[in-house]
Amino acid sequence: MRTDKKYLSDTFPELTIAPMKNKFDCLVIASQYSGAREVFDLLKQNIITGTAPEIHQNKAILECKSAKEGENLRIGIFEFESLEELCKTDISEYLLPQAKIYLMLRNPVWRSFASYRKNREEGKERSSFIEAVKWDSSPPEVGLGPQNTRYIIAGKYSEGIRSLLKQTDEHELQILEYEELRRAPFKILQELKESLGLQFRVSSEEIALNLSKQKVAGRRLGIFRSFRHNPAELDEETAKYIYYTYFKRDIEEAEALLSTSFTSWKFAEKALDGSYIARF
Fold this sequence. Notes:
By secondary structure, this protein is α/β, with parallel strands linked by helices. The protein is 36% helix and 16% strand. The chain contains 9 helices and 6 strands. It has helices spanning 5-11, 36-46, 108-121, 129-136, 158-167, 178-183, 185-196, 204-212, 236-258; strands at residues 24-31, 54-56, 59-65, 72-80, 95-105, 172-177. The chain has a 6-stranded mixed beta sheet. Strand 3 and strand 4 (72-80) form a beta hairpin. Helix 5 packs parallel to helix 9. The protein is globular and about 55 Å long. 33% of the residues are buried.
């Protein structure tokens, strides 16, 4: 007897085949070190939730109390090794009909440096950053070193964005920049609350005060960990080299796809003294 889902649903329409994947009212999507973990902590600590958060490897689920009485909203926070994984993931299967999508993006130069720092701290990386990037992006046949650090590929966003747009053209897609989360966490939290119809645990004034005392995106909060920005370890010339060599064209493609501008990721024109000024 055939038991595949299509056969059963066609032959016995009264049967309901339970979906294998959770459906969400909102998805937050990011590559590693791009803010998914910080958003999780921000929501978990400040929004009223109905049940304890669920964490499954690179996915977290929050069931939040809606501002509408008696309703809950399911928020999924997905962290991918790189956005290219979106080309192999059917995101639409996770979305309810009116679901909203937030795509977290980070300056790819600093995203790659955050990944490098973690590997250094864990003893997996002994090279300088510039050396590690060159090894990471070299063809496997060169045999220079490990090929799975993904410092560069995880910072190339355009292909993943292109795939996401095709899959979710019926859903609202909004961009959240990691740099803005660092600068103004309460602003981001307030936008999420109002857009999704969530409820704060305490007054907005108290939350704003608490967040002003801590740099949410630069510290470990709860179960996740991020790394402090240390400009002394990534000099301007190295950042400029990484930007122009590996990321400039991809950033321009991402801007065209999203009809936006990532000005803060770019280097300004040369100053009179011949230096470049990167705005992070």
